[in-house]
Amino acid sequence: MRTKDIIPSLTPYKPGKTINEVKKERGLSKIVKLASNENVYGPSPLVLDKLREFGQDFQLYPDGYARELRERVSDHLDVNRDQLIFGAGSDEIVQMLCRTYLENGSNTVMAHPTFPQYKHHAVIEGAEVREIPVKNGYHQLDQMLEAIDDFTRIVWLCTPNNPTGCYINEEQLLSFIKQCPEHVLIVLDEAYYEYVMADDYPDSLSLLENYQNIMILRTFSKAYGLAGFRVGYGISSQEVIRHLNTIRGPFNVTSIGQYAALNALEDQDYIRKVRQQNRKIQGQVEAFCRQYYLAYDPSETNFLLIHLPKSGLDVSDQLLDEGFIVRAGELLGIEQSIRVTIGKEEDMKEFMNVLSKCLE
Length: 360
Ligand SMILES: *Cc1c(COP(=O)(O)O)cnc(C)c1O
Prior knowledge:
12 strands, Histidinol-phosphate aminotransferase, HistidinolP_aminotransfase, seven-stranded mixed beta sheet, alpha/beta, three-stranded antiparallel beta sheet, Aspartate Aminotransferase, domain 2, binds pyridoxal-5'-phosphate, histidine biosynthesis, aminotransferase, Aspartate Aminotransferase, domain 1, 360 residues
């Protein structure tokens, strides 16, 4: 079959091994998955209770406008209803953005390494991808500005950045936005927003008033613990939302996903607890790293990029033998490192124990 020219050069997303596959392969009874930055505590118990009451008729299509979820999110964030778009994960919104704004002859600017889906979809749309290496895990914003020209349509700022965990502070972001030409859409991917504790992390929503060319991406997949439901959202100007709505599938977010998400929003106390517990255990893992002279990138997320004196592929394989699934940095564009989701306290004690043996 004849495809678009670009398709044969691309590879399908390679999913990590499932817990059951690893158990079988390595003859293990317990697996701790620390590879995809899901919330290890799961969703709020309140959401689980509510889900038992979900009584909607499954034969019906979902509300394509996600009215109820839209109202709750717009009240929660204090933005207009028509400044929101929902997707099957923020992944789908990344795809919608590329489909809407990118084409042959245009280009898009992003960090490297960063969230791989920006590049993947940009390439499919035929756009030129300009990647600016991060420095010590941080976006090099001046270089990114220099890479922008008349043909640039989107610049991607992943903050905090996956896989490094580093964020862009308020002063840096404001300076970037002021210098960025107005024809360029600035995407702020804030998938880890709920985990951030830094005082100088920008209040990006407040920028929407003065800038029409900003799109903020958030998700229910990470701190809210609902990755399996696939619900993410974007916040922008009415103009950008209108553009995206023209290409959005009519029923792109499931009814039960909408229901889970709107209930999750109600339990902000749970999010606070998750954030605090995460940070406490992160501190323990960081102390371990210092003890073993392992550098790590400063993280405002629920994962840590740990630099190693040897191959991250080898270490992740050794860890797998002991039941810990992590991501080798080599697979994310950083040699000799692993990206580890901050797990539960007991699991991380065992993880550190095993990692220390891998280093011997
Ligand atoms: C996990 C993640 C996403 C995607 O989340 P969805 O599950 O698709 O909402 C987007 N951006 C970054 C940086 C992520 O780490």
